[in-house]
Every structure is written in structure tokens, then in C-alpha cells.
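Hallway conversation turned thread

IA: we were arguing at lunch whether anyone had actually written out (wild Malaysian banana) hypothetical protein end to end. Turns out nobody had. So, for the record, here is the sequence (468 residues) and right after it the C-alpha cells. Reply here if something looks off.
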Amino acid sequence: MPPQLLLLLLLLCYHGFLIAAAGEHSSPVRLELVRHPAPSGGSRLEHVQELFRSDRLRQRMIHDRIQRGRHRRRACDVSPPSKNGSSVPAPAADSFKMPLKSGAYSGTGQYFVRFLLGTPAQRFLLVMDTGSDLTWVKCRLRPPGCRGGGNGTRDFRSDVSSSFKPIPCSSDMCKTSLPFSLTTCPTPASPCAYDYGYSDGSTAQGVFANEKATIILSNGRRAKLRGLVVGCTSTSAGSSFSAADGVLGLGYSDISFAGRATARFKGRFSYCLVDHLSPRNASSFLTFGPNAAALPSPPPRETALVLDLEPFYTVGVDGISVDGELLAIPRIVWDVGAGGGAILDSGTSLTVLAEPAYRAVASALSRRLEGIPRVSVDPFDYCYNWTAAGGQRKLPRMVVHLAGSAALEPPAKSYVIDVADGVKCLGIAMAPWPGVSTIGNILQQEHMWEFDLKNRRLRFRRSRCRRE
């Protein structure tokens, strides 16, 4: 059935639902990032090749979305969302955490969190994505008198959740604030529908609703996070969702999970990404609110968060150096106003540099690896027979110099990556110019990152990302 027809049927089924505003709760939240069980078959090389292909598509979508602009979105002010126009009380606890794990063993380059949604709570595994603003789950819509859809055994049962409140298509929120919402509106009470497109070509179609999530506060108590905007996705397509039940949207937006949660938890969230090829039981946390691990002594490095390309998190870049040599990259490459800039994106695996930056970095790294036999590995430009190097060759040191003298010094394994036994490749991809560059999750790994939305600051430091 065509997605448009399915959406129309869902809208007609929901014509009797009315929106109800949710209340508010508070307390710090911690989400665990978890690794999905590995599928059978598939080599490391096949896995890395799929990352490259997915990242290329994702970069295309990021570029297109930035070019289109946020024509329907007002700026996110990181203040508590209103309840029918009234403010909501702040939570008693100051943080909460979610366990976080790599999805490498499921054949994806994503990181996953476990998420409890609805009343009573239903458990799901979601992709953590700082590059999108919609939180959604695969969903089984069953309003009275209608036959429900569904994508799998862990679909969200909206019919058994007492807190599931569809957002009407006639509401101002649907018309002006919700991403990728459709203009279809059979009746004023029909739910607001969406057709959401991702940078890697994946899509999700469904309806928007207000819901509650269950969170574990820093004091160990369970609480309800109310007033969330979630998507009930009846149809989805794309490799991004094969190993997960949906997406946790952490982009900069007043309707994203990050926007709603940070409004109640001190305006901050943080995460630490374990090595994507670490043991399956390795995990860390996605934390909302103050995180002692994010602010150790000595203080972390710090730079400004530029929040002009909503929902993306942009950082200023002063340059990139290799073995202490500052490369000749035109400054316009890092200028958001000139069509450039750099974003941090947990949903992109490899780091993707706009063409002038890519050519400078690839040339500098490859010069320092001269003498090691080259091998051809599609789709990478520079790959080496590391066995022939005898394991003694020192890898060049690359540093990304962020604005404010904040140097990101990733381990060499994050940009000269293992793609097969005895084979290493430069794990950096090229994006067209003009266009943004993306610091992907592999370059971010083994660092603690704190996004201080209230003060528009990004803090980071090296970390083993151990669970506490």
C-alpha cells in the first residue's frame, strides 16, 4: 500500500481523538547506550563499507536539510515547554541516565539506548541521533473500529497506553512546529501526520502524539517525563532502522527529546561513546542534567556551540593539523555563513570533510604513510597493507583545532581504521563543496561530550567511557 494512502487511512481512523496536554515531572535522567545482538554473517570489511555508503547518503540529506532551512521552525530557547500555555514545574532530581552501547555487532554504525515509553511503560531499543529532532517508535495503531498496522514484535501498542494523546492536525503545533508534518487534515481532530526523511535515505511515516517516558532518576527512583512529542511510525524503510525500534531525536529543537529533557534537567546532556568495536558488554551512559564525570579535574576543553543550523550542533573550527603541521585549508570551509561549517553528529559514523579540507587532510596523512604498500578497497581512497609495515610504523597524529583553543585529539584508530585483518584505511570521507563537514561518532568515541544548551557551550575530554 502506498505510504500516502496508509497515512490517510490512519488519519481517518483517528478522527475521534482529541489532544490532551501532558503534565510535568522532573529529575535527572540517565539512559544506557546498549549494543544490539549481532546478526549472523558479514565481515568487518562489509560492515565498514556499509558505514561508508550510509554516511554518504546521510551527508547528502544533511546538506539538503540545511539548504531548505527551517522554514516552519522557531528557534529553540531551551525553556520548559508549556502546558496549554502555562509553565510546568521543574523536576526534583537534577539528572537521569540511559545506558548507551555501540551497534557495531548488529551490523550498524549507530549507538543505542533503552527507552521506556507509555503508560504502562513499554520497552524499546532506539538509535541515539543528535542529527534529528523527531523521537519515534515503530507503532501499532489501533483506535476503536480500525485495524492496526505494525512493523514487528516490539511495536508500540498505542491502544494500551493511557497517556498516548494524538496531536490534532488543526493545531498550531502541527502547522508550525513539527518537522516534516503533512498538510492532510480530514477533520480538525484528525492526528497530525508526518513523512520524515533521514540523511541516509531512510524514511518514517506515522502520526505525532504527546506521550510520557519512564526515567530512572539520579536518586534511583522512577519518574514520568511528561509532555514529550513522539512519532507513532506505522511504516518505515531504510538500513538505519533494521536493528532498532525507532529513533531518539537529540537534535537542537524545542520538540526533540533533548529539547524537552534538558528544559527540565539544567539545560545539559552528555554522553561517552565506547569504541565501536569494543566487547559487546561494554556500555556507558547518555545523561540529562549535571554529570560529574563530564566535569572532572582538570577542567575539560571547551568551545562554543553554534546553534544556527537547527537541528544540528555546529562548532567553530580554526583548522586541522597533522604531526604539528597546520594544514592549508581555506577558512571559508569552516564558515557557516558561506555555506561551510562543521557539525557533531552521533548518527554519522565516519568523519566527513568538505572537499578542500578532505584533500588537505588525506594528502598530509598519506604522505606520512608513504612506503607502506597500498591496496585497493572500495570505496576508500587510501588503504594500506599493514602487515607489510611490520606493525612498527607510527601513525600520524591528527588534531582538530576547535574555536577557543579547544583541541580535539582523537586516537589514531579513529581516523586510520581497521577494515580487515592486516588492512587499514583512512577513515575519512569527502563531501562536496560548498557544504558542511561532519565529525562522526568514530572520531567522537572514547571522549565524554557535554552539550550545555542553556549556555551554548560544548565541553569534552578523553575518557574510557566506563559505566559508573
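OS: looked through it. DSSP finds six helices and 28 strands in the chain.
IA: good, adding that to the notes. Residues 44-68 form the longest helix (25 residues).
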